[in-house]
Write a structure and sequence with these properties.
By secondary structure, this protein is mainly alpha-helical. It has a single domain, classed as P-loop containing nucleotide triphosphate hydrolases (Rossmann fold, 3-Layer(aba) Sandwich). Helices cover 44% and strands 8% of the residues. The protein contains six helices and two strands; from the N terminus they run αααβααβα. It has a two-stranded parallel sheet. The longest helix is centred in the middle third of the chain and has 14 residues. The protein is globular and about 45 Å long. The two termini are 29 Å apart.
């Protein structure tokens, strides 16, 4: 749990599905099986602010940690800044390899930070 650096502890049991009708509980329950991790699939939670994306991302991350899966949580602003610094210092490849040691990488707040096309291509392929 420590290496995951979750900003808060949020669980699936604490999520109020009744409050957020736009989220399909069955889909989240399926994600909680962690099949997406074993299949090396990406999960993207989309929606406006305040619908619970971060809560669900942390909760799924906690489920993965409980299952013995390595997890790292960061927000996109922090990640991009650290990658920019690593790139300037000639350490980008090492930084990216360090991130690859985690089976689950949770990047929160993607889309809130304006990125240039060059940054998007460099960091996200």
């Amino acid at each position: 749990m420590k290496s995951a650096v979750f900003p808060v502890k949020k669980t699936l049991e604490e999520f109020e599905f009744e409050f957020q009708k736009s989220i399909d509980k069955k889909v989240i329950e399926d994600l909680a099986t962690l099949r997406f991790v074993h299949n090396a699939e990406n999960v993207v939670l989309l929606g406006p602010p305040g619908v619970g994306k971060s809560h669900l991302a942390v909760a799924l991350g906690i489920e993965a940690v409980k299952a013995g899966i390595s997890v790292y949580f960061t927000n996109s602003g922090n990640l991009i800044e650290r990658l920019k610094i690593a790139n300037r210092e000639g350490m980008l490849e090492k930084k990216l390899k360090g991130l690859m040691k985690f089976k689950v990488l949770i990047i929160d707040e993607i889309g809130y930070l304006p990125l240039t096309k060059k940054e998007i291509t460099a960091y996200f392929g």
